[in-house]
Amino acid sequence: MDGSGRWCGMPAWLFTVALMAFTVHIAQGEDPDTTPPNVTCTDVTTRPFLPNSFLGLNAGVEYTYEDSNPDPSGVTYNVTKGPSGDLFPPGRTPVTMYAVDIFDNEATCLFYVENTLTELPVNCPDLNRTVATDMGLPTYSYTPSIEASDVTKSTSGYRYHGDAVSVDPTTAIGSKLDVGTHLDTVLISDEVLSKTCIGYIVVQDIEKPNVTCPADITESSTNVIQYSANVSDNVGASVTYSPEPGSRFNPGVTAVSVVARDQAGLNDTCSFVVQVSISELPVEYIPPQETIQLDSADATCQYPPITKDDLTLMDSTYQFYGDVTVAVLFNGTENNTLSLGTYILTIFIDDTVFNKTCLTVIQVEERPSTNGRSDITESSTNVIQYSANVSDNVGAPVTYAPEPRGDSKSSGFSTAELAVSVIVPCAVVLLVVFVIGFSVYYYKKSKERRKIKVSRTDGKQSSSTKTSDV
């Protein structure tokens, strides 16, 4: 008997003897066997090499079969066993074993077949890969790297539940992945079991940036030059200039290099030239005043020194190359003590690279003086004539307000002005006379009252004397 409970290799003669014994037994009229076989069975686990198939129980080990008239064909099951038989899912599956002797007496035994698999027994494909960003884009559009045909079994005897396995990535197809490393998770499954496989996708940028330089620049008014280059890249790029925009350039031709570099370290370069063609220092000097006036008591004056702060840049972006020096000549000399006269100022300005000579004319003259007249009082007319004494080395016009000539309506004093000038003094005089008169009157009255009081006192004293005499 083999592991399936079947009789194998039984000699033909033994089988023949058993059959003859059964025939004689029947012929002799003996009672047939009515006692079923005595069987026992135990739970089993599927074999590792056929993890979801049942091969049957081993006689004497996993089951027992006792009967006086056993069926040579052995036991049977309510399931189909073998590599192509029924599929057993993970877990415990109940199975019934049947034992029938040659008189059709049947006995059954219930046991469980256990499939211990918890994960689909397949090999994970290599999911690690390096991809490039989509052309002209900063991202990669995700596509799975494996199909069902790429999946192999880790146990060859395993049979898939269902037609085949499915491969399902957790990342949606078409998802945009930035430059960098991304986890790639794939679920491989049949209708019962599954397995999760992981890998890493490295997205790289392989497109270098593109930089276009501006045209060559020629500048004649300043030495500070601004410029910019056009840069394009699928993921963005930084730009460096040498020299940087806004730098101070030396006279002549200077080459400028531009480098565009993206996050992947890819770069592109270009260059152009900047030419500074300034011929002289772009500054000018504007004197605070072109005419200096001296008082009659002053014979000379000191012209203030001219410094860098007194200069005006003709282009506000220009930067001096070094310390600025200013030298001034007055009619060809450095003497800044000026007397009356005309002076040509020659101003030499230098910043160690460029220089400029400025010329300006300064006039020193005497301040005009005006001698006024004394105040005028007039009681007979309202048209007043007057004049002031004026002296100046070149002559000076004189204006009056009001004018000294004309009639009473335009240039003279008006009637109202004249009336005020007469009435107010008269009123003051009258007020003073009134106060003085009142004071004199009050003084006389007071004196008379004192006299009367004294006379009364004397009369009383006389009367008293007379009374005493009596």
TrEMBL record:
Q: Which PANTHER family match?
A: FI04643P-RELATED, HYALIN
**Matching PROSITE patterns, A to Z?**
HYR (PS50825)
Keywords for this protein? Membrane, Repeat, Signal, Transmembrane, Transmembrane helix
Per its record, how is this protein called by name? Answer: HYR domain-containing protein
Species of provenance = Strongylocentrotus purpuratus (Purple sea urchin)
Cite the InterPro entries for this sequence: HYR_dom (IPR003410)
Residues crossing the lipid bilayer are 418-443
Task: List the Pfam families.
Answer: HYR
Q: Where is the HYR domain?
A: 32-117, 196-278
Q: Which residues form the signal peptide?
A: 1-29
